[in-house]
Write a structure and sequence with these properties.
By secondary structure, this protein is α+β, with helices and mostly antiparallel strands. The protein is built from 18 helices and 13 strands. The strands form five sheets. A four-stranded mixed β-sheet has the order 1-2-9-6, covered by helices on one side. Strands 3-13-10 form a three-stranded antiparallel β-sheet. It has a two-stranded antiparallel sheet with strand order 4-5. Strand 1 and strand 2 form a beta hairpin. Helix 7 runs antiparallel to helix 8, helix 13 crosses helix 15 and helix 13 crosses helix 17. It starts with 5 loop residues before the first helix and ends in a 6-residue tail after the last helix.
């Protein structure tokens, strides 16, 4: 530079400064055009981002809720190489699932989706597009429409009544010398889970795995149920490869290997069900009114291909998704509701009084009775508000740049909706952490679960709202009403049930929930129930 003339040096310096000022101008103009980005949570680790902050003893939705208290209802965290937008109040949820709903109707590419969902053939994990729209229509019409739910109501009723009779029979065998005060110890989580599985399996595949008329032995049934639980656990695992793709080869924790093994095991079970249905159809056996979902699917799409997926793959993926959804989320809701009632004896007594007034003790509960049980319905809503089956919505991904209020969100950002935080917002709900079903008969009596009241979204909202809302509610109402009508129930100790030890997201923990029961009705009422009704 010492050899350049002075005027050349001045021109060079002026040029450099001009470029710097131009870049600064364009940067600020870009920021003013696109808006600022949502606040980024402090404390991100190199490479891992905020993942270490989410792996503590507290549930993730509580950790993210605490972050919302500090950073506001919309903020960003780093999940390894990816960014995720977290929304935590109803205003942000409303803007998300109305104005920006199409942009956030996509799923991120996660390791679990690749191995455990038949390469995204499962409806809940399929990318938004033609295949997803067509399959949602098939599932809704073939299984989850109100007409189809009504058509198979006898299945739900008979499974429930048969399971209740089996409990009564166990109580009868256990009592000594006609001691009617005998209390039967029941592991309630297991009972709810087996009941939900039997109901879903019979509606989807025409089978019963537990209790009388079971088609497999107890060991095989428990193995299948364990595999389903393992599926739900693994599909919720955020692997190191999801955060840092170039480390996938190492498979830290062995999660990817476990996913492959679980998918293979469940596929062998569902393949067996499908082959049995094909043999039955091929033999010319007449299909009864119990025609299940696999029969419907074979009638609709057998031998065809839908957007690159063959019929067998579609039927197996959809069957497994329906069994998983109807088993896990249903049983979790039943468990939460019962725990809340047992911890609130006054509310439990009010539910029983309502049931006795409208049904009496001379017969069992039917689905036509549920409309009269408004307080029970409020209990279920309050349980869903405090303990939604999935406190965090399923992961989504922005497929285009979006504006959220004054914030600019980049394409490729993942979306996490903290449903639990939204549903316990003190600005919307008085005493938000207290169990008060009465709020749904007074201040919030017009709030429903259909995704349009954005302060209450236990089933989600927008295009990807859970299609099984009607099925889930009707199952919960009938199950809880029938169980509470049929049995007196009490805790095994005077201590409140530790709610933190009962359920973790949608995976029922191993910690047992043991209760004591005895019949409320005369023995002849239970005896009127036959196997499979």
């Amino acid at each position: 530079m010492d050899y350049l003339p002075q005027n050349s040096l001045n021109s060079f310096a002026i040029g450099i400064l001009s470029i710097i000022f131009l870049c600064l101008f364009l940067f600020h103009r870009s920021k003013s055009t696109h808006g600022r980005e949502p606040p980024l949570v402090e404390g991100a680790w190199p490479i891992l981002g905020h993942l270490p902050l989410l792996t503590g003893s507290k549930p993730t939705h509580h950790t993210l809720g605490a972050m919302a208290d500090k950073y506001g209802p919309i903020f960003t965290i780093k999940l390894g190489a990816s960014r995720a937008l977290v929304i935590s109040n109803y205003e942000m949820a409303k803007e998300c699932f109305t104005t920006n709903d199409l942009a956030v109707s996509y799923r991120p590419n996660l390791v679990a989706c690749e191995h455990m969902t038949y390469n995204k053939a499962m409806l809940g994990f399929a990318p938004y597009g033609s295949y997803w729209r067509e399959m949602r229509k098939i599932v809704t019409l073939g299984f989850l429409s109100n007409h189809r739910i009504d058509l198979l109501s006898h299945v739900r009723v008979s499974e429930l009544q048969t399971s209740i009779k089996e409990l009564f029979n166990a109580w009868s065998r256990g009592k000594d010398n006609n001691n009617n005060n005998f209390l039967l110890l029941v592991e309630l989580k297991q009972w709810f889970h087996e009941l939900a599985f039997n109901t879903a399996l019979r509606m989807v595949a025409g089978k019963r795995y537990f209790g009388e008329s079971a088609v497999v032995d107890e060991i095989e049934a428990q193995r299948c149920l364990k595999s389903l639980r393992e599926f739900m656990r693994l599909v919720g695992v955020f692997t190191v490869a999801d955060a840092i793709p170039y480390l996938r080869w190492f498979d830290f924790g062995g999660h990817e290997k476990a996913m492959k093994e679980n998918a293979k095991e469940l596929d062998s079970v569902v393949t067996e069900w499908l082959e049995e249905h094909r043999l039955k159809r091929g033999s010319g056996e007449k299909v009864t009114r119990d025609e299940d979902f696999m029969d419907v699917m074979l009638s609709m799409i057998d031998g065809t291909t839908i957007h690159g997926f063959d019929a067998d793959t579609i039927i197996k993926a959809t069957t497994l998704a329906l069994v998983l959804g109807a088993t896990d989320t249903s049983s979790v809701t039943h468990v939460w509701a019962m725990c809340l009632l047992l911890n609130n004896p006054h509310t439990l007594q009010k539910v029983k009084e309502e049931i006795d007034v409208h049904i009496g003790k001379e017969r069992l509960v039917t689905e036509s009775d549920i409309n009269k049980l408004v307080y029970l319905q409020a209990v279920v809503k309050e349980a869903l508000r405090l303990y939604p089956a999935s406190p965090l919505s399923g992961a989504r991904e922005f497929r285009e740049d979006c504006m959220f209020g004054d914030y600019h969100v980049k394409k490729g950002t993942r979306l996490i909706t903290n449903l639990w935080k939204i549903q316990t917002d003190p600005n919307i709900w008085s005493e938000p952490l207290e169990f008060k079903p009465e709020r749904f008969l007074t201040t919030h009596k017009d709030v429903d679960v259909k995704g349009q009241h954005f302060e209450f979204l236990p089933f989600g909202s927008g295009r990807r709202i859970c299609p099984g809302i009607s099925f889930g509610l009707r199952t919960a109402h009938l199950t809880l009403a029938s169980f509470l009508h049929s049995f007196e129930i009490s805790k095994t100790s005077s201590e409140p049930i530790d709610m933190s030890a009962v359920v973790e997201t949608t995976n029922i923990k191993v910690v047992p929930l043991e209760v004591l029961i005895k019949p409320r009705l005369s023995p002849n009422i239970y005896e009127t129930v036959g196997p499979w009704c």
